[in-house]
Task: structure prediction
Amino acid sequence: MGTNLSHSEKRTLKRFVALYALLSFSILILISQLYLDFEKDLMLRKKQVLLEGYAKELIENLKNLHINLDKSRKYPRNDKYRSAIYDKERVLIFSTLKESSVQLDEKFYKSGKIIHFIKQPNAYFLGSYYVVVEIDDNELWLSSSYKNLLLYAGVLFILFLIVGYFLSRLFLKPMREAIELLERFIQDTTHELNTPISTINMNIEMLDLNSVGEKNRKKIDRITLASKTLSHLYDDLSFLLLNHKVISNDETIDLKTFLQERLEYFEQSAALKNISLHIEIKKSATIVMDRKKLQKLIDNLLSNAIKYNRSEGSVTLILDENSIIVQDSGLGIKKKNLEAVFDRFERFESAQGGFGIGLHIVYVIAKEYGLKIGIESEENIGTKVGITW
Amino acid sequence: MVKKAVLLFITTIVLHASVFEKNCNSCHKSFPVEIDKFLYRYILKHSSERDVKTALIEYLKNPTKEKTVMPEPFIKRFGIKKPTTLSENELKEAVDDYWLMYKIIGTLY
Result:
């Protein structure tokens, strides 16, 4: 048995990767934003000094115009910047601005690709309570910042990837070790089970049932049943251990006869729990499969339906043209557990024994033959497992 | 008939001469400092139309050295004017006309 990632391990790993990616991405975005803000701030500081100079020059020109109003009323202009003056009531006196709406409460700000600087002069030349100076920002700083950012973010991303890889290995290590330990244990146990089970089975078969009394026969029946269960478990475990080494011997199987046989096989164990077995043939069907594997698939479903049933419950096998449904009147499975029922070693009912490998075997076989498994369950009402092809 | 018409015309002009022309500009015309310079000083100190007009009316009603916008040498030479005798409405009308005539806003190019 290999130590490939199981379904639950993959799911855990996926969740970890998603969470890690989300976290890394958030950190990258945060750092990028901080870097861009820093660059913008740096650029604005430089521009602020420039704009302060322009505003000073403009105020000087406004002063000259104010003094010489009777000679000229031509508003001072400069190619390097655009400007506007507003009175105390924020009424526009004159403007050469590109943008008509100005935030007079701000001192210095960038809106789109335009930078504004607002100054309140000491004397209100021409009535100017607010003097606004405006310049265009060619955003050269932004493209150079983006280039740097791409480089830094790339390096950081690679760093995150490396850290993430080692973290995930570290994270999965205990899980892998636990699974390996369990696998090794099962492997050893299986080997040890082989001889005693064979001995019990052989001796039961060799027993002359006519020579034992009625009382003892019942006991022997129970021993036979227990031995059957053990054999079944042994088969499942061997299947899991040797799954990849067994070559399938596919043949066309008549499902009606096959299912009837399997029901008969389980009659004894069902009777022990007073569970009634039914078969409903909607339409006869055949399937091309390895007989042993199909048997394992159906047996596991039936065995579960009996095992997790209530006393005096029922199990119904329904055969249709391209589906087999096993329906029980049992305990049901909680909705949150439905997704994981096919995982190896997954068990939700601790009152019953088992390794939690039955449905995993069903899953492995169904996957090999491209069969779809559907499972519906309601707690305390029952479970319905459908195999379709 | 013609005499009556001419008389009516003259009477109309006299009656319609603005409060500002009749009560302010008529005297200021003879001053060495033109009347618009006063408004520019008010604008320099008070900025907006509302504040300028409020300060002007306040000063005309009760002129003091503390409230004047004119420099000290000017006051030393010409002194402080006497309080206005105009009514509140007349004063307001005169100040409105004065603003309209010499305002800066809307006249720059």
Q: What stands out?
A: The longest helix of chain B spans residues 2-16. Confidence is low (pLDDT under 50) at residues 7-15 of chain B.
